Amino acid sequence: MASWPGARAFGTMAAPATQRYTSSAFGMDVEFAQLSDLGRVRQGNEDYLGHVRPASPEEAQSRGWLFVVADGVGGNDDGEVASQTAVETVVVGFREAVRGEPHSSLLPALIRKANTRVLDVAHETTPGGSNMATTIVACALRHDRVVVAHVGDSRCYLIRQGEARILTRDHTYAAEQVRMGILSPKEAAESDSRHVLSRSLGGGLTVNVEVTEHQVFVGDVLVLCTDGLHGSIAPSEIGAVAGRAENLDAAARRLADIANTRDGGDNISLQIVRVKSVERVGMYRGRPYRLP
After folding, report:
1. Residue 126 CB: number of other CB atoms within 10 A?
2. Which domain holds residue 251?
3. For the chain, what is the domain count?
4. Is the pLDDT of residue 17 over 80?
5. For the whole model, what pTM was predicted?
């Protein structure tokens, strides 16, 4: 089992290794494993992972946990720089945020800030700017809730009793055409535009961040991943492997191995987060209080 090295506090890139951490704190308690694999074709890894874990029980209640996955856009300039910049911006912003700030407003604000930072870095590194861009999916957990915010086609799944449900919507032109009734899901899966993003960080001065909030229960599992994983593995298979796993490290490795066997044409990155306990809360005048 790998321990999380402090020098790599934001995430891991390039190396095909898993990282796992278990936290025990008052209220919500989670364990997670994460992995970033080069795949079988790419020469470099343009994915980047990050997380924030609370340093104390009080911080677990006031700030909570954060998990982030980003996928630098392949074929564009410096995709690996864009993904790392985006994750680090969100992680630092989450750590510095006012404690108790609602995750539903905090996460989209941090992702918009990451978009600005990616644009700034593009102009700093390349005269006239570059085309660097990245997807991002982030989830923050506190009490008995998870807030998911994303741009692009990196996904978050909620697995409950072995059944996987996608909490995000792919921001691709093919997926948008399915939602408009122009294409069928089968046609979209075979479309040349199935990997062409309709939204990304670095694609413009502003970005529309999609945000959802959900209640979580003991035993729920969240899987954040790039399209190197979900492009090869059906939600039902992800649910079967990650939802019933005794060892999260082994589950992450198993999913990456399946993706590599079936395709392996892209980097494969994922985080598996299992909820071990929750703290039920209510709100009074904007302040949480414990429920019996």
Report:
1. 13
2. 9-163+198-279
3. 1
4. no
5. 0.87
